[in-house]
Design a protein that fits this description.
The structure holds 2 protein chains of 2 kinds. Chain A is of the alpha/beta class. Chain A is 37% helix and 20% strand. Chain A folds into 4 domains: 5-203, Pyruvate-ferredoxin Oxidoreductase, domain 3; 224-403, Thiamin diphosphate (ThDP)-binding fold, Pyr/PP domains (Rossmann fold), CATH 3.40.50; 417-495, no CATH class; 502-627, Rossmann fold (3-Layer(aba) Sandwich). Chain A has a 7-stranded mixed beta sheet, with helices on both faces. In chain A, strands 2-3-1-4-5-6 form a 6-stranded mixed beta sheet, sandwiched between helices. Chain A has a 6-stranded mixed beta sheet with strand order 16-18-17-20-21-22, sandwiched between helices. In chain A, helix 10 (275-287) packs parallel to helix 12 and helix 18 (520-532) crosses helix 21 (602-614). Chain B has a single domain, classed as Thiamin diphosphate (ThDP)-binding fold, Pyr/PP domains (Rossmann fold), CATH 3.40.50.970. Chain B is built from 11 helices and 8 strands. In chain B, helix 4 packs across helix 5 (113-122). The longest helix of chain B is centred in the last third of the chain and has 15 residues, at 241-255. The chains are: A alpha/beta, B alpha/beta.
Chain lengths: 632, 312
């Protein structure tokens, strides 16, 4: 296999500095002119446990983690808890080497720390190396690090060796280390970096293999960030200055970024007793005249169900973020899944009125979070940004210009005191906050403390002034008005210059792939590969979950013979939503599902498509599952 | 200029200003203690010159939640147990607003107990009135967190096997900086206590005994009552945490032995409110956050300017 990309996997134990090392490495490659994409894999443990990060770098755009990888740096798990053979977890220390071999491509490179790892403990290691034409470098990184400074700097030695073998200029790494490290540890780290590099360069044949860093360049300045970063920056640029939350993986990232940045812009972050309180605080802060948000992952979002309903009924704008992880219940806390779609769409009692966006990329996470705030405040409705552990945690380079946008602090449909003076009131002077007949169903609000604006917000059904009222006439008028807002939002979204739905591939195609949220980039890579292989395929990544973009999706489905719907869950929730919203196409939509804790690789989709749709055969692997269309 | 000119307006207010045109006469059961809360609240607000539009009254669900319908101000009738998180966020967003939260004993000490502990712990500058009738009234008489042991109801047909919750002690342990108990049958003391609570710069918790003549017929009308601050029989210093704790324990016990003790049990005027604490560490703006959204001259920060460099 000729590789025009480097997919470098750094593996070790949780606590071995995998995250920081890989982040610097990725940024260095981005600065060198490459496109990068990272994928994190980590267990739900504090220390120890096998973890890795992959960095994919290519001159071409990279939209997913890619298939497998071609360069392994196995550090050895320095926090391994069960070193004894035969213990429950097996020999953990060797896992950074032993657990990663299955996905390493033919002709790939392995560096492992012979100071910690003994390859002879792995069954058939030498045979596998020979079979796959792997190039193995057993380097005593531990001793190198120990001699120069501290043992923990093994990762730097590994990076130095990587650079020598893959042909990466050290200056990019040096620059990053100088920026990121305090002086005290910088010196020994730089020395270790150089020594390891030079040693490998001198003592080994670095050209014995083909895995080399490609060369590339960018047309414009790039930034390296995650979906979590984008969601936070989108919120800040919409003037959100209040967040309330409770820690839960993977939502914690957005909460942390917001909490660290809000003081600098005069905002308020509240870590509170539980997620019921978190969402209720966001509602209270919005009610009192600020742009506010909260969020959680599935379990915590379940607790937000009742404040969410309160926000809907009282028409209090609020933005909630839902970071999906694999469920049910505690599930796989650090693994991605897209199985909370129905939870987010339908939780809370009664007829729900909410907006749900599921951005597909890091850049979309920024623009769609901003749109969520705009819709929430303009239409006085909760808006939810639905993403997952994958989009939240993976870093990719995005043009800096994506974020070069003006802030929008507007409170939307909110009156000033001057406007309130002209607005309708009841005979006692109460402001008619919930008028029956208003354009688009939106009745502008007032804020406590404003003269002439007092009203009652209540979760009970209420009159225009907010009084609790159960008459059928008022009930129907208010229900219809609130429902009307969704129609107005739907029209608003489809009149925007840029749709939230992402099309990829040739306009005229025989087959379609459909997905939602973070699987979008992977599906697009699969589409490119399928077309290269001679199949005629295009894709649609849908972001608007509610209101659902019926026209766009219908048009897409109509334009192809058959559609394979790709999603990371076991119950085909997005396909179900599509059929419910469109009321047809059951015989045209089949599903490719993955719910083993790992995101799709493009090859999963290529193989799934060819096997099931083209060849009409059974899928044999355990990675993915096929669910045929109705009648098949 | 403030976008919220009702705040600190200091205009003359009349008790009728808080009486809504619609439902001017509250529809609680005849003899209900809740009338006493409404009257005392109106009196206190008037005495302090608070205009209805600078007040935000949040309530939960239950008979107490109807307070919003009978007290005319900005109101937020939330959901069961959640008046406090809504209220405290509003206070942080716009500290000039006079924030009062109210709920019943089931609402505040049961389903919302977690919020009660944490709001007290944080010492938000607000008043919290708990209508304590030792029963669930609106759902027709089930045992509540403060029902006495042995209390029989439809859901506890053999009498409650649980000791009642101790609201004053819980409040002290949680961190409230003003704790009082009053009773609907004691309107003057009730009004004075609400005035003090509203003036107090911190979380002021009032356990307000509200008799329920419909569903808690065997309960007392909370008479005669004794004011522990005035009675010669009690000698304790409400600014002393230990003495306050002892007095509270005695008071909670006495209630179930037929003796109604009321008054100020704990007052800590030295502890800074949560807003002050947050401002002191730079995590809350000096100017009310809500004002910023109405200030056309405010220059809103951009992520691209402030945060993007570290990603380059």
């Amino acid at each position: 296999m000729t590789d025009n990309e480097l997919i470098w996997r750094i593996a070790g134990g949780s606590g071995d500095g995998i995250a920081s090392t890989s982040q610097n490495f990725a940024k260095a490659l981005m600065r060198s002119g490459l496109n990068v994409f990272t994928h994190r894999h980590y267990p739900s443990r504090i220390r120890g446990g096998h973890t890795y990060t992959e960095i994919r770098a290519s001159a071409d755009p990279v939209k997913s983690r890619g298939d497998g990888y071609n360069f392994l740096l196995a550090l050895g798990d320095s926090f391994a808890r069960n070193p004894k053979e035969g213990s429950v977890y097996g020999n953990e220390e060797i896992k950074p080497l032993s657990e990663n071999l299955d996905e390493l491509r033919e002709g790939g490179v392995i560096i492992y720390d012979s100071g910690l790892l003994d390859a002879s403990e792995i069954e058939n290691f030498d045979e596998r190396v020979e079979e796959n034409n792997w190039h193995v470098y057993d380097l005593d990184l531990r001793t190198m690090a120990r001699e120069q400074g501290r043992e923990v700097m093994r990762n730097t030695a590994g990076v130095g060796a990587t650079c020598a073998l893959a042909g990466i200029e050290l200056e990019w790494i040096e620059e990053l280390m100088t920026e990121a490290m305090p002086e005290k540890i910088l010196e020994p780290n730089l020395e270790i970096l150089h020594n390891a590099h030079d040693m490998v360069d001198e003592e080994y044949d670095v050209d014995a293999h083909d895995v080399k860093i490609p060369e590339g360049s960018h047309d414009e300045e790039q930034v390296l960030l995650s979906g979590s970063d984008s969601i936070a920056y989108g919120s800040l640029d919409e003037g959100c200055r209040f967040i309330a939350g409770y820690p839960m993986t993977p939502w914690t990232e957005v909460f942390t970024i917001m909490s660290q940045n809000l003081p600098e812009v005069g905002g308020i972050s509240e870590q509170v007793e539980d997620e019921i309180a978190a969402a209720a605080l966001a509602v209270g802060a919005s009610h009192a005249g600020t742009k506010a948000m909260s969020g959680s992952s599935g379990g915590g979002f379940a607790l937000m169900s009742e404040p969410l309903g309160l926000a809907e009924m009282t028409e209090t704008p609020v933005v909630l973020i839902e970071a999906m992880r694999a469920g049910p219940s505690t599930g796989l806390p650090t693994k991605p899944e897209q199985a909370d779609l129905e939870h987010v769409l339908y939780t809370s009692q009664g007829d729900s009125q909410r907006v749900v966006f599921a951005p597909g990329t890091v850049a979309e996470a920024y623009t769609q979070t901003r749109r969520a705030f705009q819709i929430a405040y303009e239409y006085q409705i909760p808006a939810i940004v639905l993403y997952d552990q994958k989009l939240g945690g993976e870093l990719m380079n995005v043009p800096a210009s994506v974020f070069d946008e003006e802030p929008n602090p507007s409170l939307g449909s909110t009156l000033t005191e001057d406007e309130l003076a002209e607005a309708p009131h009841d005979e006692s002077g109460k402001y008619s906050r919930f008028q029956h007949d208003v354009e688009d169903g939106v009745s502008p609000r007032s804020i406590p403390g404003q003269k002439g604006g007092r009203f009652l917000a209540t979760g009970n059904e209420h009159t225009p002034e907010g009084h609790i009222e159960e008459s059928p006439e008022n009930r129907v008028a208010q229900m219809d008005r609130r429902t009307q807002k969704l129609e107005a939002i739907s029209a608003d979204l489809s009149s925007q210059d840029e749709t939230h739905q992402t099309y990829h591939g040739p306009d005229e195609a025989e087959y379609g792939l459909m997905t939602f949220g973070s699987s979008q980039g992977t599906v697009e890579e699969a589409v490119d590969r399928l077309n290269d292989q001679g199949y005629s395929v295009k894709s649609l990544g849908v972001s608007d979950m509610a209101p659902y973009p019926k026209d766009e999706v219908s048009e897409f489905i109509e334009s192809v013979d058959e559609v394979l719907v790709v999603e990371m869950n076991a119950s085909a929730q997005f396909r179900g939503l599509t059929q419910k919203e469109l009321g047809q196409y059951g015989e045209k939509l089949s599903s490719l599902l993955k719910y083993n804790g790992n995101p799709f690789e493009p090859a999963d989709i290529v193989e799934g498509f060819v096997t099931t749709i083209v060849e009409d055969e059974e899928l044999t692997g355990i990675e993915t599952k096929f669910v045929p269309a109705a009648g098949d | 200029m403030s976008a919220f000119s009702a705040i600190g307006e200091g205009r003359e207010v009349d008790q009728n200003d808080y009486t809504p045109e619609l439902e001017p006469q509250a529809t609680w059961c005849p003899g209900c203690g809740d009338f006493g809360v409404l009257k005392a609240l109106k009196g206190a607000a008037q005495e302090l010159g608070k205009s209805p539009e600078e007040m935000l009254l949040t309530t939960g669900i239950g008979c107490s939640g109807k307070l919003n319908s009978y007290f005319d101000s900005y109101g937020f009738h939330t959901i069961h147990g959640r008046s406090l998180p809504v209220a405290r966020a509003a206070k942080l967003a716009n500290p000039g607003v006079e924030v009062i939260a109210a709920g019943g004993d089931g609402d505040g000490y049961g389903i919302g107990g977690n919020h009660f502990m944490h709001t007290a712990r944080e010492n938000h500058d607000m008043t919290y009135i708990v209508f304590n009738n030792e029963i669930f009234g609106l759902t027709k008489g089930q045992t509540s967190p403060t029902s006495p042991k042995g209390h029989k109801s439809k859901t506890q047909p053999h009498g409650s096997a649980k000791e009642p919750l101790r609201p004053l002690s819980l409040s002290l342990t949680s961190g409230s900086s003003y704790i009082a108990r009053t009773a609907a049958v004691n309107p003057n003391q009730a009004k004075e206590i609400i005035v003090e609570a509203m003036e107090h710069d911190g979380f002021a918790h009032i356990d307000f005994l509200t008799q329920c003549p419909t569903w808690n017929k065997d309960a007392r009308q909370y008479v005669p009552y004794i004011d522990v601050n005035e009675s010669d029989d009690y000698d304790f210093d409400p600014t002393d945490r230990r003495e306050a704790a002892d007095m509270m324990a005695e008071t909670e016990q006495a209630l179930h032995e037929g003796k109604v003790l009321t008054g100020r049990f704990y007052v800590d005027n030295d502890r800074p409110s949560y807003g002050e604490e947050k401002r002191a560490i730079g995590e809350m703006p000096e100017e009310p956050l809500a004002e910023r959204y109405f200030d056309d001259s405010y220059e809103w920060e951009r992520s691209a300017d402030l945060f993007l460099d570290k990603h380059k």
